[in-house]
Amino acid sequence: MSKRVERDSLGPVNVPEEHYWGAQTQRSIEHFDIGRPGFVWGRPVIAALGLLKATAAEVNAELGELDLDADVLAALVSAAREVQEGRLDAEFPLVVFQTGSGTQTNMNANEVIAGRANELAGHGRGGREPVHPNDHVNRGQSSNDVIPTVVHLAVVDRIEHTLYPALDQLRDTLADAAVRFEPIVMVGRTHLQDAAPIRLGHAVGAWVTQLDHAMAGLRRALLPIYGLAIGGTAVGTGLNAHPDFGTRVAERLAEQTGMPFHQADDLPAALASRDDLVTLSGTLRTVAIALYKIANDVRWLASGPRAGLGELRIPANEPGSSIMPGKVNPTQAEALRMVVARVVGNDATVAFAGAQGAFQLHVDTPVIAHAILESIELLADGAVSFDVHCARGLEADEERIAAHLGQNLMLVTALAPHIGYDHAAAIAHQALVDNISLRDAAVGSGALTGTQYDSWVDPAAMAGPPRNDPTD
Fold first, then answer.
1. Which of 106, 147, 186, 465 stands the most exposed, by the fewest C-beta atoms within 10 Å?
2. What is the pLDDT averaged over residues 373-377?
């Protein structure tokens, strides 16, 4: 493999000729070979780096901060846009386990953009002339404000364009199911024991509400993420940046993305802590917990199909056993539960790493970014898979539901207002001991007549009237 010599403040470094990166990237490759390939920076962060560097160059040029000819400036911006668009992803080999500020990843972007810009300007691949990675690409910036800004850009993009649509679609599928199942009265269950009746539509509608609340919390937690650290440079004071640089960059980023980005109100705070991302991770965990409840309920209600509850039928997507022919398992529910396990673990990582700020800089930002972005992608993928391959195919076994409802001893709850709690409890106990119907036990007790029982015990009335469409 042919090499070229690149230099940084520590001296010369041999770099593979076919790559655009420079000395600092090469040093990071050699010194931080940890977790490859699973923990290299992904497309959302690389795209955000390209977007930020292109925007920074344009703003610096407008402010008179870049002493570059027009064609060289155009090459710099073009190179950054290539990074943004994914044409140079192979030039970003670094893992998240590196310096806690992400300096090497920032320099990776600076070197690649400078190296590509120099090539576009006709000066050969790599190098530091006419575009310098620090003096030009990183002008008015520090890794300390670049990396938090890039993380916020990537997180907002992934939540807005992958997670929200995935959750919205699952939510709508379940809302439709709630309307469809509204007439069906089933056994309610508490403590995994029979309870008073409920409409199946109400039970599914509760899943919809759970998702609505989780998503509302996510939207609230995303609000601080629109605040960007750019312009804070090293410690939040804006050292070496034009006074208008950060504000203008944030405004331009808002224009390009359609998102309400703005410069953070308190730049020292934006560099010193990742509390905003810790809070966001907690709301992702809440979304995950809501999905877990839904998946687990489906798993239980579909259990059987003959020796379990068997009240919901799930799609038969694939054989469920390598030894038991004809078995169908709730695999989509199981997969989603494992997604939740990973997201909860990621949240623990974010919480622990979030505590690692010291004085004017937080120094575990890369692993926080990786964990949150992985959680977002997993939740989005998991919700889509569960929606398409399970939720849309849910069917109610009305005969099975009716059979269980007819055997439900907790229908006795309707008798309590008429004959008292103690008499009602004795009737339920007698029905269980004698293995007879609740009606027979009630009439046999002498506390009421068959006519009275039929009048007072009406499962549909006990379950309450059908409610409005949960989507209203």
1. 465
2. 98
